[in-house]
Structures are given as C-alpha cells and as structure tokens.
Amino acid sequence: MINRISILIIILFQTAVLSAQNHLEMQKEYAESLFAGEKYFDAVTEYKRLMFFDENKIYSAEAGLKIAYCYKSGGKFDDAIAVLSKMKENQQINKTDIEIEIIRLNILRGTYFRAIGLIEKLEREVPEKQSELNYWKGWSYMVADEWQKAADAFGNSREKGTEILKNLCISVSEEKYSLSFARTISYILPGAGHFYTGYFIEGIISLGWNVLWGYDVVNAIKADRIFDAVMVGNFLWLRFYTGGSQEAVKLAEIENRKIINEAYKYLSIQFEGKQP
Amino acid sequence: MKIQKFFLAHNLYTNLTLFEKINWGKIGNALFSCSFVLTQKNQKVKTAEKLSKVFTRKAKRKELSRFLKYLKGSGIKQIFFSLRDAFLIRLFNDNFSNVLLTAKRLMLKWFNKNLAHNLYPNLTLFEKSLTGKIVFSYLLLLTSYSFLFSQQTDLFSYDNRMKFGNYLYETKDYIRAVDEYRACLKINQSDTLQFKIGEAFFEMGQYNFASEEFYKLFSSKEFGYISKISFLKTQFAAEKYDSLQIFQFPDEEQEVLNYQLKFVNLSLMITEENLPGYEKYFQPFSDREKSVLLDFYEEKKSLPYKSPLKAAVFSAIIPGAGKIYTGDYGDGITAFLATGLFAFLAYDNFKAEHNFRAWLFTGLGAFFYCGNVYGSAASAQIHNAKVKNEFEAGFKLFLKNENYFIPFIRF
Asked: Which residues, 6 or more positions from B354, have their beta carbon under 8 angstroms from its beta carbon?
C-alpha cells in the first residue's frame, strides 16, 4: 500500500514539475511571439521574466540572447552590448560567438575602432575564426570609410558574399573623390576643384570671381592704391579664393557621401550575405 | 450455481470485461477461494472492510440501493460482501497501476471523449466506480497540489509579479518595474507598491508622475509621513520651488512641516542671491546636516560673480578690458586690437583728408567699440550663469547623494 501511495505521490510530483516546466515553456513561447511581432519592449520584459523564474537556468542563455537581439532591433546598441557582456560568463553559450555579436553591435553603433580592437584581440585568441573575423573587419572598415582596407580584409575572408563585398569596396574606393586633390587644385586654379567634382557652373562662377577680384587687386597695386589693394585683396579676393577651395572640398564630401550611400543602399536591400 | 444464477440474473455480468466474461468460471472459483482465504486472514478482511465502506459511501446511490434491495432477504448478502471484497483486493493487487495509468490518461485526454468512451466500457462495474473515484481523487489531489504550487508556476500571479517587479526595481529597470507593480495594484491595493511606483518615477526623473503617486499616499497610515516628505523631495527635484513654500498638507504634522522648511531653505541656495543669516537658515537642520551644508552656505555667500556694470565700464574706458575682467582674455585682446586698428585707420584717413574712408572707419570703430561694451556686460552675465550653474549642479548632486536628508527606506 505504501508503495502505491509512493507511486501516486511520484506521479503527482512529476505532474507538478512538468506543469512548472510547461509554464516556463509557455512563457518562452509568449516572449517569442512578442519578439516575432516586433514588440521589442514587451518581449524584453517577458524574456526577463522567463530568466527571473527560470531557477534552473534552462532558458537563461536563449532568453539573454533574445533580450540582446531585442535591444539590437530596437536600436539600443549600448544596452545590447551590456547584456551580451554579462552573458560572457554563461557556460551554455560560446564566448567567441558573444564576442562576435558584440563586434557586430560596435559596427552598427559606429564605434568601429572598438570593433577593430575586439577583432584583433579575437584574432590572437581564436585564430581558427580568422576568416569570419576578416569579414567583420571588412565591415568595420566600410563603416569607418576606409574602403580600400575593407576590400583587403574581405579579400582575406572565405565567408559567403565576400567577393561581392570586395568588388563593391574597390568600386567605392575608386569612385570616391580625393578631398586633398580637390583642395590642392582649387588652390592652383580657383574653380578646378569644382570641375573635378562635376560642379562646372559653380567652378566657372568661382573662377570668375577670383579673376575679377584678382584683376582689381593687381590694378590697384599698379595704380599705387595699396590700401585699396589690401582691402579688396583681403576682404574680397582672399575670401573667394579660400572659400572656393573650401567649397570644392565640401562638394567632394557631398559626392563621396552619395557614392557611399549608394553602396549602403545596395548592402541593405540587395546584399544577401551576413550583415552586422 | 444457484448463487451464480442470481448474480447472472442481476446485470452484474453485463458489466464485466470481455476477458472476465470468458474466464468467468475460473474467476468465480478464484473469487470464492479468495473470499474464503480473506475471511481467515483477519487483518486483510479488515482492510477489505474499510475499502468496502469507502466504496459503499462513494458508489452511485441509485445502483447501490437497487442492488441492495435485491439482495435484501435473499440470504446471499454475506457471500456478496465477500465477493465484493475479493474484487476489490484483486483490483488492488493486479490492476491498481493500470487503473492509475488509465486515470492519468483520461485526465490528460480529458477533452478526448472518444478515448474516454473506449476506455470506459472495458471496465467492470466496480472498476467503473473505482475508476471514477480514482480519477476524481487524482483530479482533486492534482488541483490541490497545483493550487499549492500555483504561486510558483503562474508567472503572472500577484506574488510572482511583485517578486519580478522587485527584481526589476533593484536592477534599475524602473519603467518595467512600474508596469509590474501597477499590475499587482489591480489585484490588491498596497501602499508599499504605490510608494515604490512613486520612487521609480522619481528615479526616472518623471517628477510629475512621482508627485501624483506620493500624493495618493498622504492618508496612508504606514506611508503617509514618508510619502509627504518624498512629495517635497519631488517638488524640489522638479524645481517647483514656489510650490514648496505654498503647499499645505492636509494635517499639520510638526515633522513634515520641519521638512518643508528644510526644503524651502535648500531651495534658497538656488533661487536667492543673498541667503538669510546663519541662525535663521540652519534652524530646521540637525547638527550633522548643518555641518555638511555649511560649506555650501559659505560658498554661496562668496561665489565669484562678476558685475556686468563693471565689465561695461571697463570696456568703455579701455576696449576689451571688460572681457579680460570676466576672464575672456582672447576676446578682450582681439577687441582691443580691432578697435585700436579702426581708430588708427580713421585717424590716419582724417589726417590724409580721405574723409569718406575716415568716416567709414570711424563708424566701424564705433560699432566695434559699442559692441565690445555690450559684449563685456553680456560676458559678465555668461560668466555669472556658469558660476551659478556649476554651484547648483554640485549642490543638487550633493543633495541627491544625501537623499535630500530623508531617511532611506528599506522594503
């Protein structure tokens, strides 16, 4: 009789344990449904609840990662990095994977020097991940506007889509205007920097103003009107001369931004490989 | 055989399983033997009797009364009881686990009527009754057990929400903590939770919401006092300094009024240029509070403000001197040189009788000069604002670290 009662108690106990387990499972499903519905704030709350009540830490790793993804999806990169940094101690998750996720988040939030620093650290610690690390190094350089370095990094990676990325980086690097070249040629010939960046009308106007005020200054010096020459030279000619050069650099930057934006547009819409 | 016929006459036979029907003869003999053995073994009979009593109580009244009516006066009552006991013993000996499993299956597939139907007809009358009893008992026990553990398994119960809310509060996730506490308040009113919501809003810098929460607790027996002080703290943090002075609490508790005076005096550090005398200012504060506030009191009295009037006059006498007075050395020297250059150019052109240029530079020089005088006064004001802001920021940080001289609440 005692044995039968024991059996009954065991069955009841197992049912209760299973019941508790089911509640956590249900909670996980609920959190996941919120995550899938892009309700990231609520999803974070429910994943946190799951982690809090999961005394045996069965779901803690998965829930922690999902919280980080929620923060990431919601654009809260700092919070995502903070969560992942805490999760490095979790034995259920590969520490390298966490580090790589942190690198990706650093790329996204624009702290690319930090990303490159972490990549270099991982390169020493996990040499077998070199290919993947080169891939993310390429992305870091892309965000850092170092397209040639990015192309080199992609060239050393065997990840999916690296060839496309490498060609894209080379293309952007070649298409981009040199700011120093635009500035220099504008100093040599006012308006040349405008021509270089494709702004021909602005270039002609800049050249015209410089010729006009230059002529006036020279004329004033010839006529021994030194004060006039200094005033016109300082307040007009010099303004147009330096202003024209500065504008050439600014226009080159605008054009470069357009080229980069086109590349980013391609990456976000058409590129099928891994993205940060 | 006579007895068997009586039994068969009764509908007991129809309630037997197919297996039992086939082996009825063998089972019948075994049962009689069993019954005989049982009567010899007193202890087991007692157990059987107890079980039979339980059975009798729990069996369906209608069937039992009909059956008993039939048995009454038939002379086979004693044999019937032995037989019934034997059935029960057999059931417990051989089929107990199966019955339990069946019960569990029934429960798990509670809504699967077809399965329940298929299982049910294969049981004997006794088994049917017993199965019902066991299923009922199982469900009853399970319900009780689940109820006992429900606080642990239902993650959205009051207790669990509160635990989770406390965890969020401790990890400074105040916005989620407020959500949890509010959900708890919907179930059960709690002054502690109400107060914690106020504190959470305060920590988030949502001072208006915090004030509302504290205000609700003014009449609370447990939290009335602390919520009034926290309300004052919130008003101070929200820079509603006028409200601190004019707010009237429903009841005039001396300690609360003393705190109100404290906050009013603390606000004077921010709003007033000249503080009251030492005695008057420190009257509501304790000795410890006085000692830590004294530095700020002295600093406030000797803040390195610059007079805008002086700065303007200095610049009027020597262009740029006002800016140098306010510590803006670069601008001061530039203003001096620019005004001096224009003055020289104007003078030189007047001397060379280039009147147009002379007047042009005079105008420019005058413009620079006036601008510098005005700029010096503005520079003094900017300097004063910087000094004031730095002092206020330091003072507010100090008060925050001191929790506004309010005792810390441990929940």
From this structure: none
Paired tokens of B284: 């509501």
Contact between chains at B100 and A11 (C-beta distance less than 8 A): yes
d(CA A19, CA A13): 9
> Averaging pLDDT over each range in B1-5, B57-61, B292-296, which range is the top one?
B292-296
Considering only the beta carbons, identify the residue of B92, B100, B153 that sits closest to A20: B153
B238-277 core/surface letters (b: 16 or more CB in 10 A; e: else): bebbebbeeeeeeeeeeebeebbbbbbbbbbbeeeeebee
CA dist B268 and B301 (Å) reads 12
pLDDT of A90 reads 79
Task: Judge: B96–A19 Cβ closer than 8 Å, yes or no.
Answer: no
Residue of A nearest to B100 (CA): A8
pLDDT tens track for B184-225 = 999 888 899 999 999 999 999 999 999 999 999 998 888 888
Task: Give B18-83 as a DSSP string.
Answer: HHHHHTHHHHHHHHHHHHHHHHHSHHHHHHHHHHHHHHHHHS-HHHHHHHHHHHTTSS-HHHHHHH
- Band of residue A102 on the pLDDT scale cut at 50, 70, 90: very high
Q: Give the whole-angstrom CA distance, residue A247 versus residue A187.
A: 12
The answer to whether B388 faces chain A, any CB pair under 8 Å, is no
Chain B closest-CA separation from residue A52 CA (Å):
7
User: B326 and B379 in contact (C-beta within 8 Å)?
Assistant: yes
Let me know: does A67 contact A44? Beta carbons within 8 Å. Answer: yes
How many CB atoms are closer than 10 A to CB B2?
7
Identity (one letter) of the amino acid at B119? L
Out of B104, B149, B168, closest to residue A20 by CB: B149
Task: Tell whether the model's pLDDT for residue B116 goes beyond 50.
Answer: no
Instruction: Pick the closest to residue A135 from A155, A115, A105 (CA basis).
Output: A155
**Which tens digits make up the pLDDT trace of A22-73?**
788 888 999 999 999 999 999 999 999 999 998 888 888 889 999 999 999 9
Burial class of residue B124 (count of CB atoms within 10 Å of its CB; 0-12, 13-18, 19+): middle
